[in-house]
Please model this.
Amino acid sequence: MQTPTFHNMLTSLIGAASVSSVNPAWDMGNGAVIELLDSWFSSLGFKTEILPLPGHPGKFNLIATAGRGDEGLVLSGHTDTVPFDPERWNSDPLKLHERNNRFYGIGTADMKGFFAIIIEAIRELPIDNLTQPLVILATADEESNMCGAKSLTALHRRLGRHAMIGEPTGMKPVRMHKGISMESVRLTGR
Model:
């Protein structure tokens, strides 16, 4: 199977709804996005693993690997989007639209488009000649509870020495970025 064109990949990714939310009424799985990525990276010669997230039905991570070793490069992104109100969009958020040389649709920048860009960039890469691994990591639920990233830590696997996270930050490359830590405190009183 040959990977689709960039435009067709982005159209498919945007059309695969994968909203994550702490509100169960809006929350949905990311299986359709993971299946697309799995088929495309497999067709490029990557070894792929789809990892179901324990305790989160319909949520998955994908690890696609080419090459061997533990000093490689990880290209990481998330497969979910924020909830959206279609009435506030100028076009259908689940359909790719192009206006003024820009793409519009839920996830074009944050961050389904990142995966289409990766595939376009490595399409002609001779992956059989890699001397270190190239790992593509696609996680679930970055926009809500981070269960995708949390489940990866439980694997205790070294995926690579370097990482590039495709998360947009003002649409400019940054060498390092702030992190986030979430805690909750529950007080019960009388």
